[in-house]
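Continued from yesterday's entry.
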Amino acid sequence: MSPRAIEKRDIRPAAPNSDVQGLLALPNIRLLPLSAGDRITGYGHTGDYILPAAIQGNLTVSAYDRYALLDPGQAYLLAEPGEYTVQAVSDGFCILLQLRGELVPRLLAERLSKGGNTLFHGGAAAVRETAMALAVWEDEQGEVPGETASSLAYSMLLKLKVLPTTVRVDSGSPLVEAAVAIIQEEFPFLEGVDELAERLEVSAAHLGRVFTKKIGISPGKYITRVRVEYAKLLLRDPDTTITYVAEASGFANANYFAKVFRRETGLSPSEYLASTPRRPIQNIPHFGI
């Protein structure tokens, strides 16, 4: 779906019950098709975390003395930002989430920089998945329950937690570096090499030749490897399922994921689960949808 085809809208889930409210709440989600130069301003109060994501197009995010330029596929977390501004550098689509609760700094403790701000390479995919799920719920069933929004926010934070901290590859080829950046930042919803080549305005054959020469494997193989590595990270969480990991990593279904995972690792996802210590997250309640 083209981002310009999505209308501007706000989704405001109901407040979760008191037990969940202090842990994690997602009170507002904004879907924002933007033209170059458009500005969105807001104010984050004490306890708020503002999470803008550049789904397509570049954004700048500023709050007091803090500033970030987001490439497509990136997200940026602002902690207690006060007045903030998001501005479109080019035509595109932005999703802006407001989060509250003690689970945000607890889950992302290893990623938060001084001041509570951090850039997530590839984070836009997790934000987009969460926002689209809430939009579908609202369209089909009306107001989103607070506990449902919190559950989806929790899953999103787990994805952000395990994203790689860097994505740059020095290949000596601007075309290949641009391709790698798109793959690493948008792999969960990248349809394939043809889409990648179209976005880079080259033929798929030319991209394949240059990419393989510089990286040593084809762009299709590279996409698969990035997805599998991400899946391996997700599989370490004790509350995850193979179906969820398949979908979050960009595979069409769990059966196809299992086939590819075995081909790449020599193990089925279940065998990998049994052979890898899983990382429990202490004192985190289960959110039921």
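--- second protein ---
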Amino acid sequence: MKNETLYKYFEGVASFEEEEKIREWLKASEKNQKQFLQERKLFNALVLFADKNRKEIPEFSYRKHNRSFYLRELLKVAAIMTIAFSLGYFLSINKTEETEEPLFMQTITVPDGQRIQVSLPDGTKVWLNTRTEFSYPVHLATGKRFAHLSGEAYFEVSKNEQNPFTVYTSKGTIEVLGTHFNVQDYPDQDLFETTLMEGSVKVSSHSDPEESILIQPNQKAFLADGKLIVNQVNDFDPYSWKNGLISFTEIPFEAVMKEFEKYYGKQIIVKNRNIKNYSYTGKFRLSDGLEYALRVLQEDIYFRYSRDSENQVITIE
């Protein structure tokens, strides 16, 4: 197997066909599995090296030297997975009620300003948004399909009427047979929201386990004062993060800054009262970064901003 293909897989940008080839290649021999783990270890070492030295190397030095720039770009994508896959990457080993076979969990953590797509063993596809932690069983030995989510994810669940797929979050649970939906539940936010694009899902809240509701396409369920509320969805721009875009439609400036906080993990303080209620419509590529987005906004709205890199704070003045 070419290293280039393996690295695309590690980065989360391999095509469905490439992923299938890698799975077949891994099944073919132990030698292939050893090569896979060796390349993964090397990949992880590069990620850790980059994370350690990121603040010590000026931005322009990467661009000045092609080799360093290539490494930086590779690592920017590679850092999507803060993992140590060499089978120690499995998060926990538990026993299930139905079987004595161990259940190996795999966890993916997405850092600030990044996103990633993963394919689960049952064929389900999941897109993970920035600052998201996602855990799922490596094998379907128990016959159960489930995942644990902290953050935001978009699911395209492979249909199986005999075996529902369950998503567990800190505030609620979502059960589906086969559908497309978005879930948001960041630990540092009160929001718990499930938006359905296709199929049907059952949503329940941990605050009232006996309360559950079924939602239909173009509806979203969210918690308000401990109760699940259902609303119609007319604007799907907020979910274009799946395609690498941050999109807004007539959103107040301060609300835009709150979204930037979510995507880039920085606190943004708006001191300029004149622009707090300015409404903005537009799109940004997530990969362009926060400062690029702020410079674009400055073309329409006059404001200045300062950075406190040590405390990860940006002040809008």
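Residues 204 and 211 are 6 Å apart (CA to CA). The longest helix spans residues 30-53. Will compare against the first tomorrow.
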